[in-house]
Amino acid sequence: MPDRTEGTNLASISTLISAEQIAQKLAEMGAAISADYRDRTPILVGVLKGAFIVMADLARHLDIAVEFDFMAVSSYGAATKSSGVVRILKDLDQEIAGRDVLIVEDIVDSGLTLNYLLKSLAVRKPASLEVAALLIKEGVERAPVEIRYPGFIIGPEFVIGYGLDYAEKYRNLPYVGVLHP
Ligand code: IMP
Ligand code: MG
């Protein structure tokens, strides 16, 4: 396997969720989504940049017709704690009125980002609006958001890999890890 952490200290990353565990979970989530959206054509909305890997891998476990769109939001900058400020950097390309919309997130921490996204998409009157998230942090003060398709519940530690970054790096790790400073 290529060394995706070249130039970084490998010993400072420990595996929290392996590539195999992620693949298994995405297969389960994909089966549930395929069953629920049978005979409909949902728009999967990936939240960039973090969700791009989850989106790509989850999508390949769906055996229904789907369309893809992306939004880019910024909530953290380069810090590891939520500022509570959400900025839309890129909006959807298409209208969602009357459509089934499934937001795909890498991780829900404070829920502030998701809460904001749900509100701003709900006013566009989609037929349905649900959320799939690979990781959900427990034990954090969270905005009230319902996650229809949850992946793994994890602790409050800051994680990297599988799309998740620290200062824009580590997104390409094939597993979810914890960065030890
Ligand atoms: P929230 O608004 O606090 O729920 O956080 C939303 C965004 O913050 C996520 O979509 C991630 O981009 C980022 N984030 C939250 N926790 C982590 C983490 O542990 N590692 C990397 N990014 C994170
Ligand atoms: Mg994100």
In words, what does this structure look like?
With 181 residues, this protein is α/β, with parallel strands linked by helices. The chain has a domain at 19-73 and 86-155: Rossmann fold (3-Layer(aba) Sandwich), CATH 3.40.50. It has three helices and nine strands, in the order βαβαβββαββββ. The strands form two sheets. The protein has a six-stranded mixed sheet, sandwiched between helices. The protein has a three-stranded antiparallel sheet with strand order 1-9-8, covered by helices on one side. The longest helix has 18 residues, at 19-36. The chain is globular. The structure holds inosinic acid and magnesium ion (MG).
List its traits.
Rossmann fold, binds inosinic acid, 3-stranded antiparallel β-sheet, binds magnesium ion, 6-stranded mixed β-sheet, 181 residues, 20% helix
